[in-house]
Structure formats: C-alpha cells, structure tokens
Amino acid sequence: MSNISKVRVNGTVYDIKDTEARTGLLAKISDAPTDGEEYVRKNGEWAISSGSSGESGNAQVMYYYQQPVNTATNAEIFRITNSKINTDTVVLECTFENPSYITSDVTWTSYEGYIAFTGTCTTATTANVTMAYKTDL
Asked: For residues 21 and 14, what is the distance between their CA atoms, to the nearest angstrom?
C-alpha cells in the first residue's frame, strides 16, 4: 500500500504532510454548510449539489422504498408525502412488488407536499418509486 502525500482541490495541490498546508485544506473542508443540503466546492465557494427545492438546475433524485399500496378501483391506491415534493416532481420509475395485483395503468399527479398514484389494485402490495424534479434545462 502506498502513502498519499498530495491531494488536489479545485486545481490547487496540497502537500498533506506539510502541517501548514494541511491546516488550510481542513479549514476549506470544515467550513461546509450544515443545513442538510448536499454541497460541493464550485469556484472556491460552497454550492448546493442537488437542492431539495426543485428549483431549475437542481437534479435531486428521491427514492422511496416499499411504499404501501392499497386496494382500490380506478382511485388513489397510494400517496407519498414529503415537503420536498412539489408540482415539478416527476416519477422516473415505479416498480410494484407484485405487479399482477395492478390491473390497470397507474397514473400520478404531483402536488405541493405529496404525489398521488391512481389506478386499480386488487390486493395490497408495495411499490418502490424513483422521482426527480423537471427543469427547463
């Protein structure tokens, strides 16, 4: 196994065996915001990597595992509620644990705070759903 003595951050090479350089590098990393968003360094500043607000340019993907699906006929069979969901939320994929229980097409409609799935389900099952935000980009 080899020892790492240098790292490159934003085009600057740091000798991590140099105490002064290591202190400067740690200061750059430790000043990251801690508000729950995912950040990256961009042009020497912290920028949101994948925002949760659904604003244009953000590409956050949300995955919901084993969501309960109820029996219903041509009605809402399940709903996912989360403050990150808004009217710009789209479904990328929806996979049912027992697809034979779903006997119609399933449609979805996104609202502020939740997304509703409508269709016909003959026996309760679960669904895994992947969502993201639509953008103008």
From this structure: 6
**Tens-digit pLDDT profile for residues 24-57:** 545 555 666 665 566 666 666 766 665 444 444 4
CA distance 39 to 32: 7
d(CA 71, CA 94): 17
In three-state secondary structure terms, 110 is strand
Q: Do 122 and 71 meet the contact criterion of CB atoms below 8 Å apart?
A: yes
What are the distances in angstroms from CA 123 to CA 87, 92, 96, 98, 128? 29, 24, 12, 9, 16
How far apart are the C-alpha atoms of 19 and 81, rounded to whole Å? 49
**Residue 101 · residue 77 · CB < 8 Å:** no
Work out the burial of residue 36: count CB atoms within 10 Å of its CB; fewer than 13 is exposed, 13-18 middle, 19 or more buried.
exposed
State how far the Cα of 112 lies from the Cα of 75, in Å rounded to an integer: 20
